[in-house]
Predict the 3D structure of the following.
Amino acid sequence: MIELFLSRYVYLFVLALLAIGLYGVLAKQDLVKKLIGLVIFSTAIYIFYIEGSLQEGGTAPVLDERGTDPALYVDPLPHLLILTAIVVGVGVLGVGLALLVRIYRAHGSLDESVVAERLAGRFPTDTELEDDQAERNPVAGADTPDDAPGDTDGDGRGPA
């Protein structure tokens, strides 16, 4: 059993990175630490995917004068996919950092609870939205402040 774990130590490393990244995303209040946790988590996935594509005795798929057996070539597709994922991850990191700068400028803090508390008062609740909608679109035939006394046709000029 120990030999199995020692031969697959990379998977233990990947599990540790996954746990650290997940902990950073879920347990930390600082938004920068959450973003770092997300990067650590995605790095663990990259390592796991590359480790899964490993082939014992495999070589790079490059032709040389020795004429290597094509059966020994390592499949380059997983490496290309991970390279693409890394590029996308760097883009997500850049957008995340830009958003964090914007959040800091707007709220003066990167603490999740402080930002959430400051945002709570800025947006109307569902009840406030429904009340506002009812004020804008009165039910047909209901008296509104624009109606003159006895107005029956809704034109605001009084009786028809």
